[in-house]
Amino acid sequence: MPYANAATNPNLAASPSINVGFNSSGRYTPFTMDTGSVGIVATQDAFQPAPEAQNLGPGQQYFSSSGNIAKGTWWSSKENIYDASGRLVATADVPVLQVTSRACAPNARSCRPSKHPTGVALMGIGFARESRQQPRGKPAYNAFLNLTSVATSGGAPQPLPGGWRNGYVVTASGVYLGLDGANTQHAGFVKLRPNPAYSTPTLPEWMPAPMTVSVNGVSGTGTVLMDTGVGIAYLTPPVGSSVGPLAACPSTGLRQCAPNGTVVTLYLPDQSAPVAVYSFVVGQSDNPLRPDDVVMVNGSAVLLNTRRHFLGGFDLIYDEADGFVGYRWTGNASGARGGMNAAADVALP
Q: Measured between alpha carbons, how far is 260 from 280 in angstroms, rounded to an integer?
């Protein structure tokens, strides 16, 4: 399914979007497809509950990258997912947070409070995003994991076929719903640890994807988040690494970014037996995997939020059914920037 903005966004200058409508209206709106959160979040101009919808109570969604806190009411809903040409290709059944106000967390990076916000249309499809700030970031709120029908080639949506494997493949130009041998070939897979606290018999949840990251030659283990919802990378570096004095971020002007020349190398899942590897230098202009900004974040756990330009060199595969994350080198970047371990080039496990 090509993104709604695929034709106008070839270099991922903006986040990918998916056309989404609700209930039986026949109308749809481009929603940002966000692998860094879970749940559909929309203001009243993009979503209105159906007359028979169930009020599921008040709620909020916190976005740590910006500091925005979307507040409103959760409603039961049915989703219609359209391709870029407006053809209905899938339906889903998950709640929607209708946003009626926006607050800002302390020290928010990019946020303006509003009592009557508009223009919010975001569909979070990530995994392992539960937190105190996102208590409903569970698989049951992920539309891509709760499909009720999908279209065959050129046809109308039909109930999910037998043997359906829950998951998706995120590429630079579109997304595959459901997994099979064809759309997962030539990928390397990493087994995820289960998260029983948020798993159900029909919708298992998994822990974040592991990684080793090296910053200016000093390595540490932690977790990685490939986040299509943001244009800025966020890095909590290994203990003992140094980037020198922080620089002003081009996007905000705040002095919290890694300076030009900082070398970052990512090993997935680890440095001893990586499935995939890539590297970038902050300020480097000829690498499609390079973030424009790398915001340095204080924290006790090593973390890299890669931003959407991870898709400049890799496809991302999430196998929710059996708990694998997969990476597939696309060849869009130079082999000197990254690639796959040839021994890890396999189809769906």
A: 11
Tracing tokens 């898709």 back to the chain, one arrives at 311
Length of the chain counted residue by residue:
349
Question: Would you state the pLDDT for residue 348?
Answer: 58
d(CA 111, CA 117): 12
Interatomic CA distance for residues 113 and 70, integer angstroms: 9
Nearest to 169 by CA among 10, 325, 318: 318
In the predicted model, what is the mean pLDDT of the chain?
Answer: 92
Q: 221: which 2 tokens?
A: 């283990």
pTM of the model: 0.94
Neighbouring residues of 343: CB distance < 8 A, sequence distance ≥ 6: none
Count other Cβ atoms within 10 Å, centred on residue 305.
24
Q: What is the number of other CB atoms lying within 10 angstroms of the CB of residue 196? A: 8
All domains of the chain in start order, with CATH: 6-164 (2.40.70.10), 209-344 (2.40.70)
Give the CA-trace dihedral at 295, 278, 182, 148, to 10 degrees: -10
pLDDT 10s digits, 281-332: 998 888 889 887 999 999 999 999 999 999 999 999 999 999 999 999 998 8
> pLDDT value at position 320?
97
